[in-house]
Specification:
The protein is α+β, with helices and mostly antiparallel strands. The chain has one helix at about 5-20; strands spanning about 35-40, 45-50, 70-75, 80-85. Helices cover about 20% and strands about 30% of the residues. The longest helix is centred in the N-terminal third of the chain and has 17 residues, at about 5-20.
């Protein structure tokens, strides 16, 4: 990945991690290790999908820990989160 894509991935992942309750901070499933990040670029804008992957922390494959299955963000090349996709009603 190029530098701006790494910045975009990091910014989106930090946004997701900051939304978790503080008491979950020591749980692998609610850490960077328990997340999958996919980055795409279109016309200089990065689109970052972040999804929980508790199976990376010893949970059974397919385990879902919350209502949200993934988060989708638009991020600038400088790493600023511009918008979150409003997929929930």
């Amino acid at each position: 990945m190029d530098g701006p894509a790494v910045l975009a991935a990091h910014a989106a992942m930090q946004r997701v991690l900051s939304d978790y309750p503080k008491e979950y901070a020591k749980s692998c499933a609610f850490s960077a290790r328990g997340l999958e990040v996919i980055v795409g670029e279109e016309r200089g804008m990065y689109f970052v999908r972040v999804r929980q992957r508790p199976d990376r922390c010893g949970w059974a494959p397919g385990t879902v820990l919350g209502f949200d299955e993934f988060e989708l963000y638009a991020v600038s090349p400088e790493g600023k989160v511009l918008a979150r996709y409003p997929y929930l009603p």
